[in-house]
Amino acid sequence: MDVQQHQHPIAVARAEAGMSLADLAAAMRTAARRHDRRSGTTKQQVHSWERPGANPPSDWSQQLMAEAFGVDPALVPLLGWPYWLPGNETPPMLLGTGDTVAALREAQRRAMLNRRTVLGLAPAVLVTLAADWATLDPTLAKAATEGKTVAPEFVSWLESSVQQLTGLATPDWRHTAQLLDSYYDTVVGLLEGAAYTEPVGTRLQLLASSLAQTLGWIRFDHEHHTAAAHYWNAALHAAHHAGDTDRGAGILSDLAYQSMWLGHGTPAAEVLDHALTRTQDPTARSLLSLRKARAHAMTGEARAARRAIDAAEHSLSTATGTPPSWCSWMSPADLAIDTGRCLIDLGEPGPAHQQITLGTGLLPASRDKTRAVFLTYEAESLAHQGEIDHAAATARQALALAQRIGATRCLRQITTLSAVFQPHRQVHGVDDFLNAVRSIA
User: Fold this and answer.
1) Where do the record's region annotations for Disordered lie (predicted)?
2) CA–CA separation, 401 vs 365, rounded Å?
3) pTM for this prediction
4) Domain check: are 198 and 54 in the same one?
């Protein structure tokens, strides 16, 4: 299975503008002359900025690039590099403006681009979105005035069908994604042009939110991060419109998880703080607290991470009723494994391995995607402890699962970990694992 390389954000912006490397360099030189200054930007320089891991352009070069792309220069410091680049980040529509359908359609448009990107929402935008959600009062859906009336029975059929599709095991999602897209288009079309009572409108908003949340995860698993972020933003709009604060908190948690996956722990912790203000369900609070612990551990904040782990344990131990559907899978297995992941980040591989081993043993067979991610954590923990042969065998198992599921983000997680094994090729099992990784590159 091929794991494609991400398109660099500059390359994405150039493609949307129809610019070659030389075109962008020339436009930047022209922009400099408008300021009575000179720029030595060449196509070779632009190419060097597009290389993986390259340092970003200087502030001056970014200002010139913004002018070349027709971007308001004020967005450059506001959104930060590379989030201001066109084709990578469109600031989400504000909550409470009545633009729910527009947000749902924008997510659909982004998904149609079908490209792998390294960007979600800009951290500053993500935190602002979460703060708005935590303070604005929800507005219930109002009845539309045009189109044919939507029968409640038809909405019930849609709800049942979508529930069956989203309840399938993760490996089946690759086969159901197109069906989910068609249901999404149908539901958004009803919100756009049909007439319905207020209760039916609320149900349609919640159905749109559920579909957008699931479609966001499908795009996220295939590393279409910009599309995933826009689906989750749309899901947040629809949940807010319907007044479902528990679902809204879960969607913010998904956005925070993506932010952590892309290496941004600090904004993720802020988003989760906002999410925790509007959900009281113990299972939901446990998940949010656990992800907050991960965010703090990423940034080395050991005390804050342990407080969040304690809060997650306490909330899960008090859960007695039926949790919201978006976190119904949360279990002691997840608590143990993510605690172990935190301990890896905090430099405690021994206790981390104990927690991850415990949790992996508790994980049900139906959650193979989660198992693939967690086995990769376990392999990393073992490698840190010097148990290279055991680590290689565990990583090989994770790779096999990830290949079967077809989630490219899991495959990339494993291929990134493979660098740890390069100095140990003489150890039993390492060469086989590295050869298997090379076969998917």
Assistant:
1) 28-57
2) 11
3) 0.78
4) no
